[in-house]
Amino acid sequence: MMRPVIAGLLLLTIVIAGCNQPARNEVSTGRYQLAVDGQGNAWQLDTVTGDMKRCWQGAPGIRSPICYKVTQE
C-alpha cells in the first residue's frame, strides 16, 4: 500500500528538482540580443561569437523571413 505513495513522492521530487535547474537554452541565457528598426528589420547579435544578422520579416504568402549575416569591411 505504501509503495505507490513512495513512488509518487519520488517522482514528484524528481520533477521539482528538474524544474529548479538553470536554463541551458542559449536564447534564455542571454546569448542573443535582438533589436528591431522601423523598416521591418530585426537585428540579431550573438554575444559569444560577435556575429550579427539582419533579418527581414518577409511578406505573408509571398516571401518567407530571410536572414543575412552582416559583415564589416
Describe this structure in words.
There is one protein chain. The relative contact order is 0.11. Strand 2 (41-46) and strand 3 form a beta hairpin. It is built from one helix and four strands; from the N terminus they run αββββ. It has 73 residues and is an alpha+beta fold. Helix content is 25%, strand content 29%. It has a domain at 25-73.
Helices, strands, pairings?
Blueprint (H helix, E strand, L loop, with lengths): L1 H18 L12 E5 L4 E6 L5 E5 L9 E5 L3
Antiparallel strand pairs: 1-2, 2-3, 3-4
Organism: Ralstonia pickettii OR214
Keywords: Signal
Protein name: Lipoprotein
Helix fraction? 10-25%
- Could you spell the SSE succession in H and E letters? HEEEE
Uncertain regions: pLDDT < 50 for 5+ in a row?
none
Q: End-to-end span in angstroms? A: 72 Å
User: What is the rounded Rg?
Assistant: 22 Å
Number of helices: 1
Shape: elongated
Output the structural class.
alpha+beta
Beta-strand percentage range? 25-35%
**If you average the pLDDT, what whole number results?**
72
Per DSSP E runs of 2 or more residues, the count of β-strands stands at 4
Main β sheet profile: 4 strands, antiparallel
Strand order of the largest sheet: 1-2-3-4
